[in-house]
Write a structure and sequence with these properties.
The chain is an alpha/beta fold. It has helices at residues 3-7, 38-49, 62-71, 75-89, 101-115, 146-155, 158-163, 192-198, 227-230, 256-268, 272-292, 298-301, 304-310, 341-361, and strands at residues 25-30, 56-59, 122-123, 143-144, 167-174, 180-184, 208-210, 213-217, 238-244, 318-324, 374-380.
């Protein structure tokens, strides 16, 4: 089978557009969401085809995996490595020869539960000892992620990542104290363990040891790591592509199954609005501090205490471009393990199309209110409108 067909890759347009007039740093923020992460691959491909490469990628869970592949390879090989990942995790197969798609889908998902996903995870024999058996930290899970380790080692150039051509930040939560921690290659080299820790979703996957401490998937604490860029120091004006995999808005459920689906959407959807409102308030205060500087006599500005206080002021801007993955009519409680070639392809195509529309809008060209400093632009897939 053609690898592009399996990965859902779309043929690029005839020409790119450079950085498309984007000033400041370009940031990608990727949520966690398992198979839903194919949407992120489409987002990146649309940016790549337009000649827009990120300066910084921030991710949790599948977002950390996609982010590591992007930041851990030079621009000319990133798409090929993304294609390779999504081709390897695609769960194909049919028991009816395609005559009964619903049965094929059921069988494929049952196979994932029983056999795992190629190049990602496989059943752990230790789990057969029972849920109350003391298995040790490295085995206290239903599946082993050893296949993911092997995949990441093949698809991510960790030496290139350590060189810092693109900044990568991955989020993981400390198992013992429940504190979120962001690891970034700006501060220290990232290893395959850092990426795996960010994707160690319990109880499916075991925790990963970092500096002798156990970490789990950051998505169980904060699935949209937008705060990592909003709280960064030193501050830099940024255009942020915030990719949302779980719909924050949805209709009221009328069945128990629909209630379970909606509960998961709410649990893992973005908390971006609260982060952005807080950021607006902080930016106004920083703007006031910057303006107050003109009212302070020159002689006082040169004193150390005043310089320290004025350092809290700034005039940076944050333009947040939200890309919302669609909810398809046949999505169900297990949509995040829909690793079927068809599911991967349609989510990747949706990410590509939504991002192309955002690029055509080019909202980063619009003037910013200097008092606000934060602007949000949303591109929802037609299925979500």
């Amino acid at each position: 089978m053609d690898e592009n067909a399996t990965s859902g890759r779309i043929d690029p347009p005839a020409e790119g557009a450079g950085r498309a007039g984007i000033a400041g740093q370009i940031v990608l923020v990727f949520q966690g969401g398992g198979a839903l992460g194919a949407y992120q691959a489409g987002v990146y491909q649309a940016l790549h085809d337009a000649g827009i490469e990120p300066d910084w990628v921030i991710g949790t869970s599948i977002g950390a995996i996609n982010g590591a592949i992007i930041a851990g390879n030079p621009p000319e090989t990133r798409l090929a490595q993304l294609d390779a990942f999504w081709s390897r995790v695609a769960a194909s197969g049919s028991v009816t020869g395609g005559w009964l798609p619903a049965v094929d889908d059921w069988w494929r998902r049952a196979s994932i539960f029983m056999q795992g996903v190629p190049a990602f995870f496989s059943p752990s024999p230790h789990a057969w000892l029972g849920m109350q058996a003391s298995l040790g930290r490295e085995h206290a899970a239903f599946y082993s992620t050893r296949p993911l380790r092997e995949t990441l080692v093949k698809l991510v150039d960790f030496d290139y990542l350590a060189a810092g051509a693109v900044r990568l930040t991955v989020g993981a939560v400390h198992v013992a104290n429940a504190r979120m921690r962001y690891f970034t290659n700006r501060d220290a080299p990232l290893t395959v363990e850092h990426v795996m820790a960010s994707a160690a979703f319990p109880p499916g996957f075991p925790s990963v040891q970092l500096d002798g401490e156990a970490y789990w998937d950051g998505g169980i604490y904060s699935n949209t790591p937008l705060e990592a860029v909003l709280d960064d120091r030193p501050r830099r004006s940024s255009v942020i592509f915030a990719v949302q995999l779980w719909p924050a808005v949805g209709r009221e459920p009328e069945s128990i199954l629909e209630a379970m689906v909606r509960q998961r959407d709410i649990q893992y959807s973005s908390r971006a609005q609260s982060h952005l409102e807080r950021q607006r308030q902080i930016h106004r205060l920083r703007h006031v501090i910057r303006e107050l500087e003109s009212f302070i006599p020159e002689s006082m500005r040169k004193t150390q205490p005043v310089e320290d206080l004025l350092a809290w002021g700034c005039g940076t801007t944050m333009q947040v471009l939200e890309l919302d993955a669609p909810s398809f009519g046949d999505d169900d409680l297990h949509k995040d393990i829909d690793f079927s070639p068809t599911g991967i392809a349609r989510r990747r195509a949706a990410g590509y199309d939504d991002t192309r529309r955002m690029i055509e809008r080019a909202p980063w060209r619009e003037p910013m209110d200097p008092m606000e400093g934060v602007a949000v632009y949303r591109e929802a897939h037609p299925a979500n409108r």
